[in-house]
Amino acid sequence: MSEEQKDLGFIGLLKSFPRPFWVASAMELFERWAWYGLFAVLALYLTGSTDEGALGFNHIQKGEIMSYVTFILYLLPIITGAIADKIGYRLSLIIAYAILGTGYYFMGEVTSYTAVFLVFLWVAVGAAMFKPIASAIVTKSTDKRNSSFGFGVFYMMVNVGGFFGPLFSAKLRDAFGWKIVFLMAASSIAVNMILVLFVFREPNREKSNESIGQSISRSFKNILEALSDMKLTLLLLIMIGFWLMFNQLFYTLPTFIEDWVNTKPLGEFLDNAAFIPQWFADFFKNKEGGVNPEMIVNLDAFFIVVLQMIISTIILKWKPISAMMSGILIAIIGIALSFYTNNVFYTIFGILIFAIGEMTSNPKFSDYIAKISPKGKEALYMGTYFLPIAFANLLTKWITGDLYESKADITHLARKALEVKNIQLPEISKAYPKNTFLNEAAAKMEMSREQFTEFLWNTYNPASIWYVIAGIGLITIIGLVVYDRVIAAKAKKELS
Predict the structure, then answer these.
(1) pTM of the model
(2) Distance, CA of 32 to chain centre
(3) Which residue of 61, 180, 248, 489 could cross-link 252, Cys pair, CB 3.0 to 4.6 Å?
């Protein structure tokens, strides 16, 4: 804490925030609850078997829906932020929640590829409308005395929502089916609508005589002005690699676990460990005695909540570029280990290592952008933060879609095995779902379902996709090394 923060004390800091700060933090929690509650299971829903209520899409379709829509989501705040500044935060939030609430609900009602794509795009518009407002409210509700602490509280709310959303999705869909996940997300947004209608007060904001069109045009000009600085633009291009690797945790790992990782040993461990209460074990297990993939992937958020302060303290004095390179290297080891085996305990250990890398590199990325920003242009440069995330989402389609479909999709590899034996089975459809196909394929090969999965794993090595994911991370590190020794060193000389 700074001296000013110490003077206020912990209780004084909490009391120093006005109502808009607490309402914005609560709304962030419920919005992230809804978003991650859906997004953590979206890959499973899109590609899951239709007899379980999922859609049965292939991985290329999954990649297109998730990648293209999130690409647009991360670009839209350039426009939606300007609109919010013009029409006011309260009206913008009401519009955002109306879009999100209807979007989440109807995502659970539509089943065709085109309809799902369009409704998810509708959700993205609502999320993009909300995204810049909450952080802007926190900025306007804090000052030099309490801003650092305030953003810490706000970030905690992000992670609380991001952690509990997937937990409840896993339990609810296991008990009641897939539609309840979308109702949960819509209900979370309904809570936010109540907050904005009856509790929220508009904070003071600067009003201008610009039209909405002029505000949007100015936003684009500001982004272009920042990108004219090549040291910033090159850094953003390099960091696309980090986010491309990071995305596989949510886009690809859940379906990889669903296809290949036997989670029943984890369920047995929870049952038999003397130090774990039975109610706790029962909460995490699914009906088959294993653990749902989203529960396992969600450990990333849990590790961040538990370890972020420790990691932040360790790397406090590290140079940003050094921390970013170290963090990405750690993340590479973690993501590689997560995909390398079909042993659930190695998967969890890999997620832990990846989370440490994420905590080491990600905060230093925003810190470094702030450091290279010319005085008075910090906000302008920070506005580019989401650009590499957007383009990484666009490129992710190739890994989670095309690459996974050809190298690691269990149904594709099952057909390859059947072709060797000259065995033909119908194409997967609503009338002939994925589970039926895999069960019949195993029977044709005179194996149990578990034996057939192990046979495919040993024969076709679907884990080999980790080479590509880790390779992207290594290219990112090489890019940062070159950047640090050439671009950053040159900029430092010019300033000295």
Answers:
(1) 0.89
(2) 10
(3) 248
pLDDT score for 489: 64
The closest alpha carbon to 326, from 359, 302, 281, 287, belongs to 359
Amino acid found at 29: L
* Helix 19-47 with 59-75: angle, nearest 10 deg: 160
Take residue 139 and report the two structure tokens written for it: 């900025």
| DSSP per-residue letters across 50-119 | GGGT-----HHHHHHHHHHHHHHHHHTHHHHHHHHHHH-HHHHHHHHHHHHHHHHHHHTT--SHHHHHHH
Do the domains at 20-200+210-227 and 229-408+461-496 have one common CATH topology? yes
**% of the chain residues with pLDDT over 70:** 94
Would you state the CATH architecture of domain 229-408+461-496? Up-down Bundle (1.20)
The three-state DSSP-derived secondary structure of the chain is: CCHHHHHHHHHHHHHCCCHHHHHHHHHHHHHHHHHHHHHHHHHHHHHCCHHHCCCCCCHHHHHHHHHHHHHHHHHCHHHHHHHHHHHCHHHHHHHHHHHHHHHHHHHCCCCCHHHHHHHHHHHHHHHHHHHHHHHHHHHHCCCCCCHHHHHHHHHHHHHHHHHHHHHHHHHHHHHHCCHHHHHHHHHHHHHHHHHHHHCCCCCCCCCCCCCHHHHHHHHHHHHHHHHCCHHHHHHHHHHHHHHHHHHHHHHCHHHHHHHHCECHHHHHHHHHCCCCCHHHHHHHCCCCCCCCHHHHHCHHHHHHHHHHHHHHHHCCCCCHHHHHHHHHHHHHHHHHHHHHCCEHHHHHHHHHHHHHHHHHHHHHHHHHHHHHCCCCCHHHHHCCCHHHHHHHHHHHHHHHHHHHHHHCCHHHHHHHHHHHCCCCCCCCCCCCCHHHHHHHHHHHCCCCHHHHHHHHHHHHCHHHHHHHHHHHHHHHHHHHHHHHHHHHHHHHHHHC
Please report, as a single letter, which amino acid is at residue 405.
Answer: E
Give helix 179-198 / helix 89-107 axis angle, nearest 10°: 160
For helices 230-251 and 465-482, angle between their N-to-C axes, nearest 10 degrees = 160
110-160 pLDDT, tens digit per residue, is 999 999 999 999 999 999 999 888 878 887 888 777 776 777 777 778 888
Say which CATH topology domain 20-200+210-227 has. Answer: Growth Hormone; Chain: A; (1.20.1250)
Q: Which amino acid is at 275?
A: F
Question: What is the pLDDT, as a whole number, of residue 471?
Answer: 95
Ordered by start, the domain boundaries in the chain are 20-200+210-227, 229-408+461-496, 411-460
* Residue labelled with tokens 């978003």: 35
Are the beta carbons of 382 and 52 closer than 8 angstroms? Answer: no
Nearest 5°: the CA angle 47, 266, 357 is 75
